[in-house]
Amino acid sequence: YLDIACASFKSRDLFYNSKYIGIDNDLNRLSMIPERFKKKLDSVPVFGNMLNLSTLPRCISESAISTNTFHWLKDSDKLKALGEISRLVSGGGDIFIDCDSGKHVVVMEDYLDQQYKSVKIYYYRNKFSSFFEEKFIDKKGVNSAYYWHILYKYILWPLLFIFELLTLKFKSSSSRVIL
């Protein structure tokens, strides 16, 4: 797996059965990789910028993931970053990109349609769930009042989850997208 903007290998444990290449443009973050990963030959940190990964060979992985990264890029750089990532993934491989929705998604989808046999897009964080997250979650997590916590955890969160599943294909009502 390629993990683009891996920070300090924060997601490494999710890929325990595979080779993991974590790419980040922050040397300080890469230096904070836990010791248990530094000793593993299947966990490789790479200092690099997702807009220019030309120093890495083509098709070095069957899969790539990038979460909470693309929203930091200018719209004009998102397609370039996607091109760099897809160059590193072998034909028939998988790319998982989480980003904000907008006009650039259409361009990114067109690019992926040309490169891959199958492209799936899921929209999430619809207006309904965004409203409830704003009202019921404070900066420390679930609103600190106990009854709000119970209401959110056992009633609202399951309802929001179901509603999100039902609206995965609706562009207009969602602020985030998974490509």
Strand order of the largest sheet: 3-2-1-4-5-9-6
The percentage of residues in β strands lies in: 25-35%
Number of helices: 6
Low-confidence regions:
none
Structural summary, described in words:
Helix 3 (75-88) packs parallel to helix 4 (103-115) and helix 5 (127-136) runs antiparallel to helix 6. The strands form two sheets. The protein has a seven-stranded mixed β-sheet with strand order 3-2-1-4-5-9-6. The chain is 37% helix and 25% strand. The chain has helices at 27-30, 35-38, 75-88, 103-115, 127-136, 146-166; strands at residues 2-4, 20-24, 43-47, 61-66, 89-100, 122-126, 137-138, 141-142, 174-178. The longest helix has 21 residues, at 146-166. The protein has 179 residues and is of the alpha/beta class. The two termini are 17 Å apart. The mean pLDDT is 81. It is built from six helices and nine strands. It is globular, with a radius of gyration of 18 Å. A hairpin with a 2-residue loop joins strand 7 (137-138) and strand 8 (141-142).
